[in-house]
Specification:
Elements: H1 7-71, H2 73-80, H3 123-133, H4 142-160, H5 164-170, H6 198-217, H7 220-233, H8 238-272
Helix pairs in contact: 1-2, 1-6, 1-8, 3-4, 3-5, 4-5
């Protein structure tokens, strides 16, 4: 009986070791850059997210006051009881990244306990990391910004539903074998898959790791890290430039909030008059 691994298995195993090393290096570089972004821009991104949510709330309140005056209180009460049309979510609907508590978001269910050994992340920590990676205000092109908005919609939907597997998939993370994270039970009488050979298992793992590498390499924040390096060679500090852009957007949002509050106050005074 020949117990030596086949040449094909040895080749796949060597490719697997190389891919694992590449993925580990990419993850380390990504974590390091994300820490830099968080230190330089994190508080500004959180403030902008809070202001986006506040302007949406104030705008809705002002619109309600004006509609109530136009249609009358009785009709408005009737309309409020009717089904509301679905509204496409936007980045301004996202909970503030730094302050949103897990219990404050409707619909999040209990999650499995985190386990470093099994590499199961905390859902809130993972959401924050993904929100940083795909934050539209970090995108450097219209194409990346549109892609980030689409990804943030999916991330927000999964987080609101407490769907940890979906968030892990969006992060390019694999679910440890044998760990059940809200997966549907097997149908009664359904035959189990045939056991895989060592070569098939290695090929499957290699394919999954290469997919993770491709996904991580295409992240907007990875593209941003390359642009930061290029700008440094040109004598520019791109993160400082981004901070200035965020501060400008914050100033505009603060002015918008003040304007909406003034409009609400003026409309309320007119109602009392």
């Amino acid at each position: 009986m020949n117990l030596r691994p086949s040449h094909e298995l040895l080749y796949v195993q060597s490719q697997l070791l190389s891919a694992e090393a590449e993925l580990d290096e990419l993850n380390q570089q990504l974590r390091s850059f994300e820490d830099r972004v968080d230190a330089r821009l994190g508080s500004l991104l959180d403030q902008l997210s809070e202001l986006n949510a506040e302007t949406s709330s104030l705008d809705a309140k002002l619109r309600h006051i004006r509609e109530e005056r136009l249609f009358g209180i009785d009709l408005m009460r009737y309309l409020e009881g009717a089904p509301q049309p679905a509204r496409r979510s936007t980045v301004t609907d996202l909970p503030p990244l730094g302050l949103a508590s897990r219990g404050a978001i409707h619909g999040i269910v209990d999650k499995p306990p985190t386990s470093p050994e099994l590499n199961i992340p905390d859902i809130k920590v993972l959401y924050r990391k993904l929100a940083r990676r795909y934050h539209p205000d970090l995108a450097r092109s219209d194409v990346d910004r549109a892609s980030s908005n689409e990804q943030m919609t999916e991330i927000n939907r999964a987080y609101n539903a407490g769907d940890l597997p979906a968030l892990m998939k969006l992060a390019g993370m694999g679910i440890p074998y044998g760990v059940d994270l809200r997966q549907p039970p097997l149908q009664p009488g359904k035959p189990h898959d045939e056991p895989q050979s060592e070569l098939e298992l290695a090929e499957g793992k290699l394919k999954a790791i290469r997919q993770q590498i491709t996904r991580l390499s295409s992240l907007p924040i990875v593209k941003l890290s390359l642009e930061v390096k290029l700008a440094r060679h040109q004598g520019r500090d791109l993160l400082n430039e981004l901070a200035a852009e965020l501060q400008y957007k914050i100033a505009r949002k603060l002015a918008e909030c003040d304007y909406l509050r003034a409009q609400i106050k003026a409309n309320e005074i007119n109602e009392d008059a």
